[in-house]
Design a protein that fits this description.
It is a single chain. By secondary structure, the chain is α/β, with parallel strands linked by helices. The protein folds into 2 domains: 10-232, Spore Coat Polysaccharide Biosynthesis Protein SpsA, Chain A (Alpha-Beta Complex); 235-303. 41% of the residues lie in helices and 19% in strands. Strand 1 (13-19), helix 2 (23-34) and strand 2 (41-47) form a beta-alpha-beta unit. The radius of gyration is 19 Å and the shape is globular.
């Protein structure tokens, strides 16, 4: 097919889902994307599973909008970068395999870009899936002894073009979208961060903060909605918070070393909360120990350059 024909059939959106060994959650996530009212999109699934179950799930969908990639690589950031390179649309939309997307999710994202033409990214609202929320908290839900993290329940639309705390004000990788040009402008995800990497987290926080550090305009809107199904018991949540604190310390120190005052102040704020045992880690000693581990790694990320899209064009 020639270049003109490819242009004619290019989708308006590329929806990207990365998965590893969660076939039934993947089935539900894919079905929710395919059920969206907006229809001119491609759905790219990058599968890093160690068995064939997710491949078998994907084989049950008879939809030519799906593009399925099986890879032996390990790491969420690596998987996301594979999907970015494969994407054909100018707007890339990310969710996770443990999410269920609202039927108007994609239409709401398109509406936000239409309303804010200079926006380079749109983040959406994330609510818990399947259980009653007993806590009036912005970024987590509590149901009995279970906790669902990585939420953003805010109903206030906001626009950012300078430093803020991304995971608090914008959200994370389970409901975010970007113009493809940002990956050419500032690079893709840092592949030594994120689930499956030695750090274990932080690729979406680092990428979002990198965009803000470059004064890219980003929108948080409550209209694009997904539900997150990642309920953890207290012990699992504590382990997750230890890893998150380590990653956040490394990411924000890497920017403090660029003489970013906001990043430095945020690090001091985290240390203050940890010293008072206010971040659900179990003890001030444990929290500060993980924080210190992250600080040790911060200079490495200051020197590390993320991969750029052109290198794989």
């Amino acid at each position: 097919m020639n270049d003109v024909a490819l242009e004619l059939v290019s989708p308006e959106l590329s929806v990207l889902i990365c998965t590893r060994n969660r076939p039934e959650k993947l089935r539900r996530a894919v079905a929710s994307v395919l059920a969206n009212s907006a229809s001119n999109f491609e759905l790219i699934v990058v599968d890093q599973s160690t068995d064939q179950l997710s491949a078998q799930v994907m084989a049950t969908f008879g939809d030519d909008r799906i593009r399925y990639f099986r890879t032996p690589t390990v790491g969420l950031a690596i998987s996301r970068n594979i999907a970015i390179r494969a994407a054909r649309a100018d707007t890339l939309v990310f969710t996770d395999d443990d999410c269920v997307c609202d039927r108007e999710w994609l239409a709401a994202i398109q509406a936000e870009y239409a309303n804010e033409p200079r926006a380079l990214g749109v983040y959406g609202r994330v609510l818990p899936y399947g259980k009653r929320d007993d806590a009036d908290l912005k970024s987590v839900s509590v149901s009995g002894d279970l906790i669902c993290p990585a939420l953003n329940k805010s109903t206030e639309r906001r626009v950012f073009d300078g430093p803020t705390v991304p995971q608090r004000e914008l959200g994370g990788g389970n409901n975010m979208s970007f113009r493809k040009e940002v990956f050419r402008r500032v690079g893709m995800f840092n592949e030594s961060l994120g689930s499956g990497s030695p750090m274990g987290t932080g690729e979406d926080t680092e990428f979002s903060y990198r965009l803000l550090w470059h004064n890219c305009k980003l929108v948080y809107s409550p209209r694009p909605l997904v539900h997150h199904d990642n309920w953890l018991d207290r012990a699992q949540f504590t382990r997750m918070m230890k890893v998150a604190v380590r990653g956040e310390a490394a990411v924000f120190l890497s920017y403090a070393l660029r003489l970013d005052r906001f990043a430095l102040v945020h690090l001091l704020r985290i240390a203050w909360y940890l010293a008072r045992n206010r971040l659900a880690i179990g003890s001030a000693t444990a929290g500060l120990a993980y924080f210190a581990m992250g600080l040790v790694l911060g200079p490495k990320y200051r020197l590390m350059k993320p991969p750029r899209l052109e290198a794989y064009a």
